[in-house]
Amino acid sequence: MTDTPDIIYTKVDEAPELARASLEPIIRAFAGKAGISVETRDISVAGRILALFPDYLTEEQRVSDDLAWLGELVKTPSANVIKLPNISASMPQLTAAIKELQAKGYAIPDYPYEPKTDAEKEARARYDAVKGSAVNPVLREGNSDRRAAKPVKQYAMANPHRMGDWSKDSKTRVASMDGNDFFANEKSATITAAQAGGAKIVFTAENGSETVLKSGLKYLEGEVVDATFMSAKALEAFIRKEIAAVEPGVLFSVHLKATMMKVSDPILFGHFVKVYLEDFIAKHGAELKAMGWNPNSGLGDLESKIKGNAALEADYKAVMDAQPPMYMVNSDKGITNLHVPSDVIIDASMPALIRAGGKGWGPDGKEADTVCCIPDNCYAGVYDETIEYFKEHGKLDVTTCGSVSNVGLMAQKAEEYGSHPTTFEIAAKGKVEIVLDSGEVLHSHAVEAGDIWRSSTAKKAPILDWIALGVARYKATGSAAFWLDANRAHDAELIKYVEPALKEAGVEIPIMAPREATRFTLETMVKGQDCVTITGNVLRDYLTDLFPILELGTSAKMLSIVKLMQGGGMFETGAGGTAPKHVQQVLEESHLRWDSLGEFCALGESFSFLSESKGNAAGAIMGKAIDVATQKVLDNDDSPKGRVGQNDNRTSHYHFARYWAEAVAAQTEDKALAEAFAPIAKALAETEEKILAEIHAAEGSPADLGGYYLPDEAKVASVMRPSATLNGIIG
């Protein structure tokens, strides 16, 4: 790659994308004055779709495949990428994006749910490459170091967010399967030199016929290869049992991740829908199928399809009324936990419920204790132990607690998040095997129709890099634990790497099963001490929401550094789980409450990394100034608030720009840089009242963005850059 920009800033979706339209012009202008180049690459859902269908588009409509380009960049030492949260598209999101693009004149095909022709099969394969965690596995060529920046932690302790009170007799609990889940059925092996090479996944039916589910697999020596399945029968029996066991006044809920786990979890979600509506489906199944309804798409799609059919609506209401009340995504709008698979994402929904004292919102608009169904036992114990801890000890004191950071194994599609191409819903009774090119059967499972089988891997080099990063963060922090369960097949293989590596490093870091590690971490932070959680990929995702939401009130303000294995750096900017709600408010009243603090933190790290990796002295100055500006935004309470007339995302960007310019102008290391920024700082300070008035004048009425997945750039700029005065100063 030649002529690579100094910094790449990603174009994404929803609220972070609206925020980018306001913040990035400031970043480009300021960086340009320091001789630093900043460019944008598009990893939005719409951008990813259009990049994969050039043959359906006109020459003017075609776009570059920026995700593929970035995928190559992150394998080089020159990579310096600031990655904002993107949509991990669920089926409803993907189909909505397709419809919007078609309406805008892009002649892309419909999503083929049941492809018959070769063209339909190819189109589905392209679309499936967009779904779920399509972006992260491509970009994450390194392991994760995620923690709260010091200014953020200090602000949270001085300005504690609201925490719900816990009662010892709370009926909130986590419910999981008692066996035959992914945890119980997992098998794992580390590939030897003799086993390295090609492999395939084969299904053999009871009559002996074979179907190759996946060919062309390649395993490296030292790679940990897992295989497991969840029994559909056992899952549905578990769901029925838990629905029947819900006590009066308690809500029923399910917590999955149908976005990242784009193959398995929508199927699990569909089973919950089927069981919850079992009587309704038994009566109207043929009619519903004729309507094209799939339980995996949720209650929202069902309600839209039966709208106006009085008989179906009456039967649906009767069945819903007969079931336990459901945990709601939005009580006011009647959006339930089972409406859309992407609406309730476990790593956001469970911490929010725990922070609220174990309370969820019910259909009556009131808070209540909740049964939280997390079917698989791989990670459910983390949430169960957290709930039990707070029942025993009461809510967390955020003014005194220590900070919990994470080192996560995620490089090169590690673990379950890399399992999408090797996850299958089994069609009939038989067995699924991983067969090496030598003919050796690495793993074998007896399965039945409807079971969900999956395989995933973790390569040796990322594992060793992860351990080394964990040791380094332990030495810097003083307390840590590896979250590995010796009784889980996959974890047992990782422990074979961890134990000798710790011995060689001369450090003693405890290795604990997730449940025990959860209590250890909570006890450590309650003492006011910091603690590092060293985990696999899924737990990295879960814990970097759980602890920040408890500590800081949000996970969007976390600093996420990906130390790329080839020497580059990627800086992620927090979570986007609430982004759809933020966009809705913009559409209704042109007020964006998205907080760009995560972007500020990532930006500072990116400039500092530029200084370290390329010897760019200006990068160091700009990075230090960003840290000063970020602290001032917090200290002066310039962060966005929820109501029209209060600070919003755009006003926070004005304050950030002013403080950034003032800090660069005040430094003495580079006189020319100080002189370049002095008039900008002066102008921003002198016109503050006018700039803020221009921004607030744009609020209070609906905003036209010209689209959701592919908004009109000019319209977005009009909404997000309403101050002519600020625009004139920045340029």
Give a verbal description of the structure:
The chain is of the alpha/beta class and 731 residues long. Helix content is 46%, strand content 17%. It is built from 27 helices and 24 strands. The strands form 5 sheets. A 10-stranded mixed β-sheet has the order 2-1-3-24-23-4-15-22-20-21, with helices on both faces. Strands 5, 10, 13 and 14 form a 4-stranded mixed β-sheet that branches. It has a 4-stranded antiparallel β-sheet with strand order 6-9-19-16. Helix 15 runs parallel beside helix 18, helix 21 (597-614) runs antiparallel to helix 22 (617-635) and helix 23 runs antiparallel to helix 24. The chain is globular and about 80 Å long. It starts with 6 loop residues before the first strand and ends with a helix. The mean pLDDT is 94.
